[in-house]
Write a sequence for this structure.
């Protein structure tokens, strides 16, 4: 089975632009979470979706939004990009609603650079 | 905000030696997990230890958990050059069962 896939792998955007990042979870996994990892830091939780509904949100501004589709894939959208949004964005999937009571399976991430 | 703090921030050892990394956290947890990350790419799950467990083994990995001290340690025995990576502890629970809270990580370098 394929693991968690994210696209694109790298992206360069200009300040003020909008970006959409995509994630396909492992087949059968209904929970998708998004994390932001700034260079030199650990990942920070942004969102969790389960069965197409938002189940948790981290401490990020409203410029960040996400959604989950009927096939359980997910998009992370960031509006009005700032230089500080430059980071590695990681998607993780899990078969369970709780999401974190078992291991999470991470994709390889999307490296976003805002210039 | 970061929940866990790994110690040390960086560790350099020779192949064959053991590597020990520590993690401290602040709130109550359901479980604590260790992940590995190579060159800033995806995270790979290594081991999960539940709050009612004290020690767990997986191959060359040994994890301990002391909930009274809110701390955990990861021991990698007989290290190899391929173990070179960043290692993160992540906590789950404390009222939030939908997210992992990561520390800043330990960069392990294993020299051949």
């Amino acid at each position: 089975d394929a693991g968690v896939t994210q696209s694109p792998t790298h992206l360069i955007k200009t300040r003020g632009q909008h970006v959409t990042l995509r994630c396909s979870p492992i087949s059968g996994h209904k929970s998708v979470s998004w994390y932001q990892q700034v260079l030199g830091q650990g990942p920070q939780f942004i969102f969790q979706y389960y069965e197409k509904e938002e189940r948790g949100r981290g401490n990020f501004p409203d410029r960040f939004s996400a959604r989950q589709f009927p096939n359980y894939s997910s998009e992370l959208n960031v509006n009005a990009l700032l230089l500080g949004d430059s980071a590695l964005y990681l998607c993780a999937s899990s078969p369970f609603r709780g999401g974190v009571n078992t291991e999470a399976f991470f994709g390889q991430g999307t490296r976003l650079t805002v210039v | 905000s970061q929940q866990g703090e790994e110690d040390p921030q960086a560790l350099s050892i020779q192949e064959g030696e053991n590597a020990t990394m520590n993690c401290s956290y602040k709130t109550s947890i359901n479980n604590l997990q260790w992940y590995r990350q190579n060159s800033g790419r995806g995270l790979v799950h290594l081991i999960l230890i539940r709050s009612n467990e004290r020690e767990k083994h997986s191959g060359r990995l040994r994890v301990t958990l002391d909930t009274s001290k809110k701390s955990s340690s990861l021991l990698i025995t007989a290290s190899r050059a391929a173990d070179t990576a960043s290692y993160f502890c992540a906590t789950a629970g404390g009222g939030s069962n939908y997210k992992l809270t990561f520390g800043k990580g330990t960069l392990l370098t294993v020299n051949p």
Remarks:
- The longest strand of chain A covers residues 87-94.
- DSSP finds no helices and eleven strands in chain A.
- The two ends of chain A are 37 Å apart (CA to CA).
